[in-house]
Design goal:
The protein is α/β, with parallel strands linked by helices. The protein is 35% helix and 18% strand. The chain is built from seven helices and nine strands; from the N terminus they run H-H-H-E-H-E-H-E-E-H-H-E-E-E-E-E. Helix 3 packs across helix 4.
Length: 215
Amino acid sequence: MTAATAQPGREKIARSFRQFPSRGTAARRLALCFAALLLIRASAARADYPEEIPFLPTPIEVVDRMLELAAVTQSDVVYDLGSGDGRIVIRAAKKYGARGVGIEMDAALIERAVEAARQQGVEHLVEFRREDALKADLAPASVVTLYMLPWFNEAVKPSLRKMKPGARVVAHDFGIEGWPPDRTVVLEKPERMLGGIKHPHKIFLWKIRKESSDQ
């Protein structure tokens, strides 16, 4: 999950959400939540894009389920918006032979993704573009994956409408306002988050149809 330039503290925030111990006082949990919020706000204030989305990598088991739900095959072109370290398009290329395009604003994350693709031997199948995801041309994509906040999912709808009928959109955790999903899947094994809270990952699937009131 990332849409803009990386800022210091972003990965510390990501780690804190996964490594905070399950035990502790309520006051300590509240204090850590508040500290994480301040880090996110301070990061966004320094960014060229004030509505920056922090980098929170999608767990690989969620990535696999997203690709399965979209029924990705070798003939697909997978676009990941806010591609971060490139794991979704790299996984699609490695597991299914699909071509992939990662759209990302963070140059450091793009470098990491390019190196990861090389290490996985799929650099000939994937590419990474430093580009505003809201301005990306999604018409060539047969599959678009999202791990973005609700405001972004709402804003990207005009671009998604330009995809060809039969294309699929898969979102992690956050739906698209006004678009009822064709399928919703909740993963059986929840992830332990900040303060010991168990977070059940949710995946939404949409199939692009001809222009309709829903899309």
